[in-house]
Amino acid sequence: MSRIIVDAIRNSSASSDGITLSSDGKVAFPNTSTGKILQVLQDTKTDTATTSSTSFSAISGLSQAITTTGSNKVLIRVYLHFGLVGGNPVHFKLVRTTSGSDTDVFLGDADGNRTRATMGGLSAADTWNVNHESIEFLESPSAGTHTYSIHWKIISGYNPAYLNRSGRDDNQNYASRTPSVITVMEVAA
Predict the structure, then answer these.
(1) What is the pTM (predicted TM-score) of this model?
(2) How far is CA 144 from CA 95, 96, 97, in A?
(3) Is pLDDT above 60 for 159?
(4) Coil, strand or helix at 45
């Protein structure tokens, strides 16, 4: 399909929707403001963390603030590495903090006793595995300064959860330490 567009542009100086082809073969799209990425901010965590908490709490050292204007949106991308004892659960949720107030963002629906979360749940992985979870979500938080973070918890009676390492964490070259990242982007509305 893209070749058809390029061929059509080559055969005319400009298409009806404003898409043009420069003399060096680059496709240029109309100069609209909607959908443009205005800023990109990122926080990474390369060290490990552990939780035995049965209440959601922030993963220390993994959050990113962004100041938006007008009705612009925020695109949030998160990639986590974590370890568990095989068959144990961990739940993660995306949280936005604005003016000192926390708001859960992008949770599953409430249903019975199930935990409302953004990612996670019961893991069937072995203790020596490093698991991963990722999300991407576009939200409309309104203008202001917003800090996005990931909160996590385990369930009572289960083993701790670990960030950026396996549950076993052998001091051997076959074991790894891995990073986690949160990226936020202001998108013009």
Answers:
(1) 0.82
(2) 15, 12, 11
(3) yes
(4) strand
